[in-house]
Amino acid sequence: MRRIDVQERPDWREKAEQVGFTFHSAEGTPYWDESGAFAFTLREIEEDIEAPSAEIEEMALEFVGKACRDEEILARLAIPKAFWPEIWESWQRGDRNLYGRFDFAYDGQGPAKLLEYNADTPTGLLETGVFQWLWLEELTANGQLPRGADQFNSLHDKLTAAFHSLHDGKPYFLYLTCVQDSEEDRGTVAYLEELAQQAGMKTQFLFVDDIGLTSAGKFVDLDEKPIEVLFKLYPWEWMMREEFGKAIPGCGTQFIEPIWKAVLSNKGLLPYLWKMAPNHPNLVPAYFPDETATDLGHSFVEKPLFSREGSNIRLFERGRAMGDTEGPYGEEGFVRQQKIRIPDFGKGHVVIGSWMVASEPAGMLVREDKSPVTGNLARFIPHFIEP
Amino acid sequence: MAKNPTKKPASPPSKNRKPTITRAGFGETGEQPPKTGMKRSHKIALGATGIILAGAWLGSGSNERVAGPEETGADAKIYASLDECLAANRGFMTPKIVNGQLVNEKSPEQIKCEADFKVAQANYEKTAPKFSSQNECEGQYGAGQCRSSSFNGTSVFIPAMVGFMVANYLSNNRTPQALLPARQAGAVPCPPGVTPVQQPGCLMPRQASSSSNSSSGWRSYSTSSGHTVSRDTSKPANSPTKVPSAAAAAPAARTSLGAAPTRSVSSISRSATTTSRGGFGSTSHSISRSSSS
């Protein structure tokens, strides 16, 4: 794994917008940054990223099976009691999941270390699956990258296959929803909507505020039509705590991601994984604050159970709080994770996002951030596999 | 590196887990992409891109580099028709008496015109973006610019072939390709005062009417892979013009329809129940951040 300088395509912004990647810059600075690229060997991808992702997914699903019938775990994960039966039923029914993203610290020198699992509402699909792919095609064509260069990026193929499989001849009408004021979220959902349409599904987008609830307890669209299947780029922990949340049990809507993903999109997963497989090379020691934590060490980070885009992360050095990132999260509790080195190739701290589609490894994105806590100003650096 | 990627989780599988949900994913019965050594998607198919096959920009298996990073554009010749190519390349025709009649033998350039046109025409239907309706096609290429065709036994609509392009053979072995009407959607307009000479690939704004002053004599086309190429019509047809390097590469064959199905409109059904709204979304308003991660 190495970082190289690459010449930016002068017209990459237009090209990004052409495929719907309109959120390529954030607060005036590029989020997509093709002035550099990360080069990996095929061995690094297959042995260090892909295989551990598949293995940790197995462990994670293992954990869901255990957690959804264990009241102590569900309470530890701060999942409201009213949803426990629904989570159990959703898992028993085999409600299918679409996607997730593991975030790893990895520098090519040692095993990738799991920082967290974004199992419910990850973004970065369009820029990984489409724009990064097009970048590779164009740069191998213009000679900037060697012929035969590849990319760990079957995201588009696998998402397409997943929607075909979900559709599977059934007359599915898929609703998709996200918040109103995020261009990134809207762009991500629009991409998924197009894939669903290509798979032959009828689709309808509506904003999360527009979802209706009838007096009969059914979720409906703006035309009062029942929402049978809903893709929601909106976190389960928020839905559970909002006014309509109490209508979720028994509402009859199939959600994507399914409600059992609430067990995984939770930092509380990390200490449980560590208990399931202590000293696993791809895991980082993690504990709940009240647990005896002999191998946690004196330098650790405290992460809220529910936190997004790097908010509310507290760093402890030798047991003392050294500072934190701001944010609105944390009232539901924390986990402690050993402080590990976040690799730096000279331009910022690097985190690998490893995509899972239908619980199978499906590609990768690399983000780089000035801060060791990857936040929403991290830059997306494209990658390739050396021939 | 001391690790074993196939190591199984330390704890035993839970007793109650049904075998049907061991994967619990969408993909278990679905169509899977072909298994090859490639780690990336085999193609990208979106309304905005049409179908692009992995590796297609590189042409068909030739070993040459297509264009260097130092190039800002490639030289190419653009002809509106075979006749235009023939007319512009008369060269030194040798008069010859055949069967008692005076005929003009074709120049080598004219022979190349015919060969190039033949190649472009042969690949045209294969590489042109395909649409399931005339409307969708015309939405991209303009009214009256599309025709019906058949593809894998289905009837489809494709933009008309309105010219062909021959990239400069000196820079590499590039296949002559068919040109389509300029795509309005997604094309990058040329900034004021800039022509495609300075910025290959930009789209000159349409003249208000054909009778307006012809300071801009540019005619634009698009390639099958979606690039805009333009030619200054005030110059001889066989003078080279600058096109984006990627546009000069052989286009990808399109293996399925190039546009997404149209959205369906939901019908309104009134029910006796009352509906409330706004019960989801409150957390996002209080946090005022993207809900994603």
Could you explain how this protein is built, in words?
The complex is a heterodimer of chains A (387) and B (293). Chain A has 387 residues and is of the alpha+beta class. Chain A contains 9 helices and 21 strands. Chain A has helices at 12-18, 42-67, 71-76, 84-93, 125-141, 155-167, 183-198, 236-241, 269-276, and strands at residues 2-5, 25-26, 29-30, 36-40, 99-105, 113-118, 173-178, 202-207, 212-214, 219-220, 229-232, 254-256, 286-287, 300-304, 314-317, 320-324, 334-338, 349-357, 360-369, 379-381, 383-385. In chain A, the strands form 6 sheets. A 5-stranded antiparallel sheet of chain A has the order 6-5-18-19-20. Chain A has a 5-stranded antiparallel sheet with strand order 13-17-14-15-16, with helices on one face. The model of chain A has no long low-confidence stretch (mean pLDDT 92). Chain B contains 5 helices and 13 strands. Chain B has helices at 82-88, 108-127, 134-141, 245-248, 282-287; strands at residues 43-46, 50-53, 74-79, 95-98, 101-104, 146-151, 154-159, 163-167, 177-181, 218-222, 228-232, 241-243, 275-277. In chain B, strand 4 and strand 5 (101-104) form a beta hairpin. In chain B, helix 1 packs antiparallel against helix 2 (108-127). The radius of gyration of chain B is 27 Å and the shape is elongated. Residues 1-25, 27-35, 58-72, 169-173, 207-215 and 255-271 of chain B have low confidence and may be disordered. Classes of the chains: A alpha+beta (387), B alpha+beta (293). The interface between A and B is large, with 126 and 91 residues.
